[in-house]
Fold this sequence. Notes:
Shape: globular
Number of strands: 24
CATH topology of the largest domain: Aldehyde Dehydrogenase, Chain A, domain 1
Oligomer: single chain
CATH class of the largest domain: Alpha Beta
Amino acid sequence: MKEPSITQNKLPTYLNCISGDWIPSSSSETNAIRNPANTDEIVGVVQKSNKDDVRRAVDAAKDALESWREMTAPKRGAILYKAWVKMGERVEQFALAMTREEGKTIRDSRGEVKASLNMLEYFAAEGRRLLGETVSSELPNYFTYTIRKPLGVVASITPWNFPLSEPVRKIAGAIICGNTVVAKPATITPLSTIMFVQVLEEAGLPKGVVNVVTGQGSTIGDELVTNRAVKGISFTGSSEVGSTLNRKASEQLKKVQAEMGGKNPVVVLDDADLDLAAEGIVQGAFGSTGQRCTCTSRVITTPAIKDKLLEKVLELTRKFKTGNGKREDVDMGPLSSAEQLEKVSNYIKLGCDEGARIVHGGNALSGSEYDKGFFIEPTIFVDVKSGMRIAQEEIFGPVVAFIDAEDFDEAVQIANNVEFGLAASLYCNDVSTCQRFVNRIEVGLVHINNPTVGGEAQLPFGGIKSSGIGPHELGLAAIDFFSEKVSVFLDYSGRRREAKFV
Length: 502
């Protein structure tokens, strides 16, 4: 078997993985992956694959399917456990690779590796469960129960902002249920996926169970969506791409799971712990450079506390240090690309044009270490109205908008007045109000007295409205997506029965 990478002109060149072999694309074209904190640093070179590469990967997954789904789920879980151990021994290696290819701080990268380990451990344990049901029949001497069967070949299409945890949650969830996978990592952050699949191979994963093809989503992603051999697609990305993907896949009756955008609010009420709220807002808005689907994008406050809260947020933000994520003292790294920097800068200008006022940040950073990267200041807007575009559209950068609300009811109305419904947070110390918020807020992830970001492996993760399509990720929701429940009716009476109709 070839290695996942080769050294070419002193640059590591990473290959596609098809049926256990690491091979170049048939296109012979490559893409250079650059560190967004220092674009002079080429992290690696990857394959610019074409549709023929995808078809070969799908064929490899089809060939591996029968033997993999026949392997017992506990044995599949044992392989994931071995991978969990091996990844746990390489936390720093994975974290540094992630920081170099995506730009996030080394602390954020370590956190992502640990979260990925939690997911891997969770799905490994599911090999001992994969629960079905036994249900009492209305007929005597009749045994009715359900079993789970894999979908078949599934596609994993993952984003650039979480280059390890997204592939781990999709691939591990798929293979524990007996599926085989073709993974398409994000064009600009594919190296973490390649490293993860290498760990799976070392843990004993059979050839062809997980295949990796790198390249442009418009080319290879479209082939995965339209290839009839692919029975399910797990996608994370923008709402625009996700809705198009869902439409194309639905024409072939494929199963689709899409985790998409967010415009996540934090509501802070008069009785809140303002120090706690300020810490949560800064962490949610500026952690990972605001490049999370769950990042805090709006802060909705009541009149009595808005000035005090804003001052506490400003005090913390002024201490935030921006720079190369490889440095331990840095709090926020660069944006992921020149395109992302342009997009965020345009939204900041738009906010000013709409009449909002900047009280911190707003500028791209230059000089010294900043000249070779895509750096921008953490930015805080005030005097924002709910209908402004900066309060409605996903910016995906370190920009947060403060919006006034007269009371709890208006705050919830403003929070819900967007097309997205991923995450929301409430800072409040009244139990009754907290439960009313849980009942009325239109999101898939509700946080009380903690930031909008974050989740746990054993709980469903996903949104409603324009933030999600299909079953959620993680927890038993992932098992439900990656398997089909089959109802079994076993008559052990030995007698003929009249036909029964439902």
